Amino acid sequence: MAGPGEAAIRVQGLSKSFGPVRAVRAIGFDVSPGEIFGLVGPDGAGKTTTMRMLAAVLQPDAGEIVIDGVNVAAEPERAKLHLSYMPQRFGLYEDLTVSENIFFYAELFGVSRNDRMTRSQQLLGAAGLLPFRRRLAGQLSGGMKQKLGLVCALIHTPKVLLLDEPTTGVDPVSRRDFWAILYDLRESGVTIVLSTAYMDEAERCSRLALLHGGAIRYCDTPSRLKVSMPGALLAIPATDPRGVRDALTGKPGVLGILLMGDRVHVRVDDAARRIPELQRLLAERGITEASVEPTEPGIEDVFVALLGQGSGP
Amino acid sequence: MFERLSVMLMKEFLQLRRDRWMMFRLIVPLIIQMVVFGYAATFTVHHVATAVLDLDQSQASRSLISHFVATSRFDIVDMAENRKQITSDIVDDRAVVALVINAGFSRNLENGRSAPLQVIIDGTNSNTALIALGYIGQITAQFSSEQEGRPVALRVGSVSPVTGIKLEPLPWFNEGLNERWFFIPGVIGTLTLLQVVSLTAFAVVREREVGTLEQIMVSPIRPFEFILGKTVPFFLIGFGDIALVSAFGILWFHVPFIGSPLVMLAGAALFLMAAVGMGLLLSTFSRTQQQAFALNFFLLNPFFILSGFAFPIAAMPKALQWFTLINPLRYFLVIIRAVFLKGVGVDVLWPQLLALALLAAVMLTISVLRFTKSLD
Questions:
Q1: Which helix (H) or strand (E) holds A293?
Q2: CB contact (8 A) between residue B214 and residue A87
Q3: A190-240 tens-digit pLDDT
Q4: Cβ of B20 under 8 Å from any chain A Cβ?
Q5: Does B93 contact chain A (CB < 8 Å)?
Q6: What are the C-alpha distances in Å from A85 to residues A185, B54, B218, B341?
Q7: Comparing C-alpha atoms, which of A57, A3, A49, A42 is closest to residue A25?
Q8: Are residues A169 and A105 in the same domain?
Q9: Which one of B14, B19, B216 has the shortest CB-CB distance to A108?
């Protein structure tokens, strides 16, 4: 049991290689009880490998994982009792009904019959799946399958929940339901680690680790990560974002350019000095009266700024 | 441990029951193959299309031809007029066998000389050709013994003189040399192996493919419990297969079962353990059900051919004979045929039972080790 003030998850020097590929390189972090900790990074950054090692389905080459006071390598079965892992695609039996899937996972974790009934009612209600209890899992929509996966993952009331890109390919409404459940869980003291490639989802986490090339480059709260972003961010609404990008690429003081649909985010070293310069550069290209205004960076801007050039701390 | 195993088993049987076609797929192919093997798998040759060129046109030559017609083995399809016709009969597939009785056949017989009968046979199907030749030999021997010792010499390439030795065959255990009695017990073992290996492999690979395997491994279940949960149902299905197909063979085809059911049970249990071990091993080499299917298809045919089901192991090249030693079907076929037809017990069959036990132990150990390793 994790005592007060003790970390729910403690990871030290965790490494894993697949042949010559060093998927995870000596990463370490602590997660406090009740936190939603996000692992953010591009594809191939090592998110899934890290998750699988935390879930004790993959043996690390080196390093130590302690979850809720239990050393995962030494006592995997005991660690698994209080742990839940939901991979990108939760393994549901499509030829079994919603209730039968829940029943199966409940039994695997030794959940008593009474607990199973009340808990599944409660979880199915929260997930909006109560009317579909008798439907075959294979006949659910993608979002409903993912919610059923979460229900199965939560049926044994885990203390630590590991979610690997849980809302990839899920519609916005199901995604909102999904996050509502996660917030409820956090309220009840469940520690959540989730990996994501969605920036809006990263923004919802209490703390983020930016993973790149198998190593953690930055680890902090979203707001502090934004503050630590070098330079200032300017937004330029544009009908032709590519034209704006071409006009400004490589110009003095421009650190990075990100296309955002109807506008362009330009990161510069000094906002006050560069705004008139940029306006002049755009005018030269025939883009007149463009508004260039300072803006709050989103986590995507921070992410690109911190990892884009591949520069580590 | 017991609760986790029982929930695995419950889930497994629930899935089997849920699959509406499963029962159909389990039973119908067995029955169909049983019927096919029972009726069609036979080495006996009947109604061989035969062309005859009788250049002697004597009473003796007509008598010889009638000896052929009298058996149902040969059907005269053409009474040819000349040699050319005979050749075209064989070339154009109208006849498989041609008999040529030369002029002077009856004169030779009367003078006590050897009277040649030329036999031309289409050797494309060597099996049919050999068997037909055997019958021709029997028929001519019969005919010449009726000619008061004046021999008819059979010429097939070289001359094979008819000797004075008379064979009196006395087959034991299957007095009628009924081929069904030989095939049906073999079919029981072969079909069961096919079904149990593929079902086990597919079921395990499916869990891997769908992702439920990883999900289960996150729970406190141990790999060994999972494997048991995944193999016991197919072990039981295998027993069902053996019982069903045996009953069908005994009741429908009247194959005698004179041995001890207990010996059969022991042999079946060991055989099925080896079979689920093979299925599990196969699953560790496949990531998808398609791969498992391809591998299954590729492997089971050699196991079937190199089992002694139809082709005698003793006639195989040495290297292949060595291979049959790791084939569980080889041992089970010996056991099942012996139990059905000879009624012998453990005192005779212990080498086969021991070999099966060893094979089962080795296959299960390797597959469990490989499976556990493949979880990473």
A1: strand A293-294
A2: yes
A3: 999 999 888 888 888 999 998 888 898 888 888 888 888 888 888 888 888
A4: no
A5: no
A6: 15, 87, 7, 57
A7: A49
A8: yes
A9: B216
Q: Alpha-carbon torsion B228, B205, A152, A118, what sign? A: negative
- Tell me the HSE value of A89 on the side-chain side, using a 13 A CA sphere: 13
Whether the Cβ atoms of residue B313 and residue B330 lie closer than 8 Å to each other: yes
Question: What's the half-sphere exposure (Cβ side, CA atoms, 13 Å) at A120?
Answer: 24
Phi, psi of A77 (to 5 degrees): -65, -40
Low-confidence winner among A110-124, B156-170, B350-364 (lowest mean pLDDT)? B156-170
If one counts every other C-beta atom within 10 angstroms of the C-beta of residue B243, the result is 15
CB-nearest partner of A59 from B19, B222, B376: B376
pLDDT at A2: 44
Closest in A84, A93, A108 to B221, CB measured: A108
User: Looking at CA atoms only, how far is residue A230 from chain B in angstroms?
Assistant: 40
Domain that holds residue A125: 9-225
Q: Do A77 and B222 lie within an 8 Å CB cutoff?
A: yes
Tell me the domains of chain B and their CATH numbers.
Answer: 48-160 (3.40.1710.10), 175-374 (no CATH)
A184 in the same domain as A48: yes
For A163-174, b/e burial (b = at least 16 CB within 10 A) is bbbbbeebeeeb
If we measure between CA atoms, which residue out of B308, B275, B296, B311 comes closest to residue B192? B275
Which of A31-40, A297-306, B330-339 has the weakest average pLDDT? A297-306
CA of A288 to nearest chain B CA: how many angstroms apart?
55
Contacts of A165 (CB under 8 A, 6+ apart): A47, A48, A88, A194, A195, A196, A197
Residue A192 · residue A163 · CB < 8 Å: yes
Picking from A98, A54, A81, the residue whose alpha carbon sits closest to that of residue A195 is: A54
ipTM: 0.73
Q: Count each helix (H run) and each strand (E run) in chain B, helices first.
A: 14, 6
